Every structure is written in structure tokens, then in C-alpha cells.
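Input chain follows. Return C-alpha cells only.
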Amino acid sequence: MSPLSHEAAVASLVANLPVVKTGAGAAQTPDSKSGTQSGQQPPVELLDRDHSILAFNERVFDWAVRTDVPLLERLRYLCIVSSNLDEFFEVRAAPHITAAKNGETKGLYTEASFEALSAQAHDLVARQYALYNESLVPAFAAQGIRIVPHGERSEGQKRWVHDYFMREVRPLLIPVGLDPAHPFPQVANKSLNFIVRLKGRDAFGRENEIAIVKVPRALPRLIRMPPKVAPKEALFVSLSSIVRAHLHDLFPGREVTEFSQFRVTRHSDLALDEEDVRNLRTALRQGLQHRHYGQAVRLEVSAGCSVFLSDFLLGQFDLPGAALYRVGGPVNLVRLTQLVDLVNDPALLFPPWRSVWPRQMQPGVSILEQLRHRDILMHQPFESFDGLLAFLREAVNDPQVLVIKQTIYRTGSDSELMDLLTEAVRRGKEVMAVVELKARFDEEANINWAEALESIGAQ
């Protein structure tokens, strides 16, 4: 498949996006004369923001479809789309859900806007799983890479999986049978869970029909089987299939009649009015405590989930039917990025990116001395971030540097930049850092860094 030209791509994108009309009267074409004779400006046509985000992700999905892209990179693009969709639902879906539940017919968010967005999202998700099952899975199998479901495991592999379950998984699972004394538990945002329908009575004689099994995030979602049970191929098992194969072990004396994995996505945007809070950091800390349990906006279940169980979950999360997504595979495709790292075959990946040393920065010569003669521009990510680290490292070690001022937007949990600022404080330099606390989904990490710097005397 050859990529579209820039002009064709833009034309395709614009042609498929809804239009938001502003001003009096109907939307007009660019050559329309209506409205100009009376001195009024013709109404402006704007692309709908939420549909634009979904359309962008369709462009990303196109890279997962392309057969000229290395196989592991195609999987990575597929996972990127899923990660982007997660963030879309977490940030943009709540007003549409609320409007649909309230029967709104006017305004920016209505029942119609929810239905239109749902239709576009459902179509994209359906194409994702079709690509995964019909193209990527066979392509990986041709390379000797398989995620083996329970029904296809040999007896030796089943014994190994059972031992792994009993040793690594079972001690962390706490099934919750629902009854008046044990209501539906709090289910965290994007966590893996199972819903189970049971027959018979539990050890206390209760006939609780529904049970929930929450799977801890700490457990890896993909596990590679050892060579003793997979000598010729790279074989993996998913955590969800391990739990699924052993659900009966979690309910001794009961009959499991129905079950499904499920995942709920919750509204997670921290909307704070900075003028209404005295301490932004404290307000964000308090908001982060509740982020994992915000308003439910999407429910994902297995394709074979019964109507009884899906309706039960929709009722628990107070969601309309269009917010239900039945998927033919793992409910969290994002976690399949682990397969990219576990396989790590250069033949199935893009060549590694080698960023160049900043061209305006002469290597082996004091950067501070170079700056006395001219400014230096670094263009990232095309030029290496190592240039900036070298500059900061030199400033930290130079006794004539008395003050370091730094603006920080996002950092990793293991950041050499933050370590260098810490070292600067230790050496007695004045350090002032402006840290963006509202960097979406990095708020907690940035708050932690800000507090760590303050605790040692940085401003």
C-alpha cells in the first residue's frame, strides 16, 4: 500500500468529518454569496473536535494495516491506537454520555452527538480486532510467535500454566460474591476483571449468583513459556487466559455457568479552576486520589459475553447500550506492547533511530564557552537530547555557575535531568524549576518531582 499524498490525506480527512456551523443560517460553501449583500460575514464551518480526534486515530490505524511496515511495528501502531482511544474516552466522552442519559437534544452535547461518536468509535474498534485476528495473529504464527489459548496447549503446557497460576496468580486473587452484605466492588479505571455467573451455594450456604474477580495490575499480561514446554517456537500465554482457565478453582463446590472478562474506562480528566484553588498541587493531589474511580464512560467485554452479564454490568456502571464494546480478543490491546519487548527481533522492527549530536554544538569544546560567542539551537528529537544533558552537566560541575533555572514539562520516573538538578542543589547552587503540574496523565510524577526538589532546597 502506498501512502497517500499530503493533499489527498487532508482532503480525505476533511471530507469525512462532521461540520460545526457557527453564525446565523445554514453552513455555506466558500463561493456562496449569501449573507454578504447585507454586510454580514458568512458563517464559519469548523471541524468537530471529537470526530477529528477519532479521524486522526484512523490515520494511525492505517500504519498498522500496511504490509510494508515491520510486523512488530504494526502491532505497536495497533496498540498506539488503543492507547489513544483510552485517552479519548477518559477525556472527551463524559459530556456525550451525560447528554445521552439525560435525553439532551440541543447544544454541543446531545443524544445524537453520542450516537455519532459511538458509531465511529465502534467501527474503528471492530476494524482493530479484525486486523489483529485476521492479519497480525497469522503473520506472527508464520514467524513462530504465538499467544497460545487454553484449548491449544499441550498437556505439558497446561501443567506449566497451572503451576504458574497456583504460584504467581492465585495468591493475589480475591473473588467477591455479590450479596446484600457484599455489594458490587469498586472497579478501577482500565483494570482487568472477570464477571462470573454461578450455580449452587457457597461455603456459607449463600446462593450468590454473580461474582467479580479483580486481577491486580502488578501481574504481567503476557508470559513466555519456557523452552522445556515450548522448544521450537516463541510461545506466550496471556494472563486473562490463565485466569479464565482456572475460574472453577476459585469457586470450589460451585458450577461456573457463564463468565467474561471486562474493563471499564472512566472519566479521568482533572478539570481545576486555578483561580478557585489556593494550592494547585494540593488540589491536584486530591483529584488524583479519585481519578481511578470517576464516571464510567465505556465498558469492554468479551465477544461471547452473555446478554445477561453485559446488561448487569451496564446497569452497575449506569451506561447506555452504545457504550458497550464487545471485542474479539483481549479487552486491553495496549498491554500487547509487551510482546514487542519480549520478542525484540530486529528483523521485525524498524531500524533503531540514531539521533545526531546537535549540529550547532561543537563536541569536545566547553558549551558555556561556545555560548559566549553565539546562541545554540537544538532541534529535538532529530538532534540528541544528550546535548542538553551535557550542557546541564557542565553547568552543575562549573564552580562559576551560581544559579540554574529550568522549565520542566514531562520527565520519566528515572530522569538524569532531575538527578543533575539534585546534584546542583547539593553543590550549593541556587536551583529554580518551573514544573508543569497539569501535564495530562503525568500530574502525579511531576508533583513527586516538584516535592523532591523542594525537599532539598530547590525553589
